[in-house]
Amino acid sequence: MATALTIAGSDSGGGAGIQADLKTFEALGVFGTSALTAITAQNTRGVRAVEVLSPSMVSAQILAVLEDIGAGAIKTGMLGTHDVVETVASTLQQWTTIPLVVDPVMVAKSRDRLLSDDAIQGLVRHLLPLATVVTPNGPEAEVLTGHPVRTEADAREAARRLHDMGPAAVIVKGGHLETTDVVDVLFDGTDFHEVRGPRHATRHTHGTGCTFAAAIAAHLALGHALPDAFRRSRAYLDGAIRHAPGIGHGAGPVAHFWNRAI
Q1: Which of 44, 76, 87, 205 is catalytic?
Q2: Is 111 a residue whose pLDDT tops 90?
Q3: Which residues are registered as beta bridge partners of 27?
Q4: 77, 80, 175, 207: which is the annotated catalytic residue?
Q5: With the CA atoms of 203, 104, 82 and 97 taken in that order, what torsion angle do they form, in degrees rounded to the nearest 10?
Q6: Fewest 10 Å CB contacts: which of 69, 80, 97, 240?
Q7: Does the active-site annotation cover 205?
């Protein structure tokens, strides 16, 4: 059976982080394993507290999984501190043949900050060069490149700039762009691929970035090429948003199992 490892934080509300990743892996037919980086006390309204695990414990979890179970793909999410970022990158240096999806989680849907400034620099310096694909949204791409990302042309330019930082490919997500449709852009260093879809009038989009990146990791673990994984993951996420269960009083989660009977 295909397997995938997520290295990310816990969301007590169940809509993002480790919980969203494992649900997505399972929904797409992939056995999920995890390395926890942080515990958050949060719900659909916001993050109340964060406690980051020690870098040594994060590394120990990664090695325990990979040395026994292995992984068809690895996905990183919330890493929290520079030391954790650096440790994750150092640990994964031993496993560079496994596809790596880097979701540069910086800010929660509630706008609570989840990644420190020095950790962002560590991510650029140490983790992006290992990535098969990095998946920032518009605001994250702005932070990483130092340039505005508001239009489709901006997204393409940001993808080029991010590709120059070392990842094999870049996906700039279009949910925050000032475009009529949602336009996600993939750049592999040579060619651009894009997926367009309608915007959904809903507040239930908590964990969409985690879910999308986890879906890409799952499809890579299943053997799909990146452009195909990109398209399949976008279709899965669109359905998950459309079927959101309406949980909570703030930004609610999406429906991770919308595509299968459970």
Answers
A1: 205
A2: no
A3: none
A4: 207
A5: 140
A6: 97
A7: yes
